[in-house]
Amino acid sequence: MNVELTRFRVKEGQTAVVDEWLVFLNDNMKDVLVTLEGERMYVETIFREVLDGSEYLYWYSIQGEGGQDVETSTHWIDEKHMAYWKECIDPSFPGVDLNPAVVMNPASVAESMK
């Protein structure tokens, strides 16, 4: 099981497109959830923050081993998601992984993620 939290900087001037992206994901959640199955993604959450004048998106996820990468998916929802990514995420600012210090899952939850 992989537990991750990664911060990505949004390109300057893309706030309105990020708004559109997040609405798109929420409005198409049924299809989003279908793609998560193939990725063996148990939990995926996007957080948003403005810090010192820059906007950031944070991805928190809990994922099982051996899932499909979103980058290689041909599902229409993933293709649209990656198009938003390319339009909004600043490639000159590498993603910053935060290291988990403690992972707390009840045994019943951890067992269901195998």
Number of strands: 4
Overall form = globular
Unreliable spans: none
Number of helices, where a helix is a run of at least 4 consecutive DSSP H or I residues: 4
User: For the largest beta sheet, what order do the strands appear in spatially?
Assistant: 2-3-1-4
What's the end-to-end separation, in Å?
8 Å
* Mean residue pLDDT: 93
Which structural class do the helices and strands define?
alpha+beta
Could you state the oligomeric state of the chains shown?
single chain
Please give a structural write-up.
- The structure is a single chain.
- The chain is built from four helices and four strands.
- It has 114 residues and is α+β, with helices and mostly antiparallel strands.
- The chain has a four-stranded antiparallel beta sheet.
- A hairpin with a 2-residue loop joins strand 2 (41-51) and strand 3.
- The longest helix is centred in the first third of the chain and has 13 residues, at 15-27.
- It is globular, with a radius of gyration of 15 Å.
- It starts with a strand and ends with a helix.
